[in-house]
Design goal:
6 strands; two-stranded antiparallel sheet; single chain; 5 helices; about 15% strand; about 140 residues
Length: about 140
């Protein structure tokens, strides 16, 4: 890793500790993240890149790197060469790799969870969230 040349890229595999990684990078290490939260509260439609700060004092760049459209917008706004981002977070490995350039390279890292544990976690997560949804009458 070479500071100023390489940009850490966290490939977020769902149900594999991504929330914890996001908290450590943003809240503990105070790094500026490019992730889905950066586009919330209407910031995903602005004409230029800027840093935005939300709850728990986590700073994001105003892009959404969790969607194809958000990655295209980040690419058009030259996210990698902007100097605003410390870490890019995305579940879209191939699309997000297009954000980086020969002078601002991505250095990927991820957390891999056992597939059975991941499936069980997803099962219980869906079971819990569906239980809490209000019942609608037809």
């Amino acid at each position: 890793f070479q500071r100023g040349i390489d940009i850490p890229f966290y490939w977020h595999i769902p149900r594999s500790g991504g929330g914890t990684v996001n908290d450590v990078l943003g809240s503990c290490l105070k790094l500026t993240l490019a992730a889905d939260a950066g586009a919330s509260e209407g910031h995903g439609h602005e004409d230029s890149l800027k840093k935005v700060t939300f709850a728990r004092s986590v700073t994001y760049v105003n892009v959404d790197t969790s969607t194809h459209q958000g990655i295209e917008r980040a690419k058009k706004l030259n996210l990698a060469s902007s100097g605003l981002v410390d870490v890019v977070i995305s579940p879209l490995l191939h699309d997000a790799s297009s954000l980086f350039t020969s002078t601002r390279r991505g250095r990927m890292f991820t957390i891999i969870r056992h597939p059975v544990e991941r499936a069980a976690s997803l099962f219980y997560f869906i079971q819990d969230t569906q239980w809490k949804q209000p019942i609608t009458k037809k």
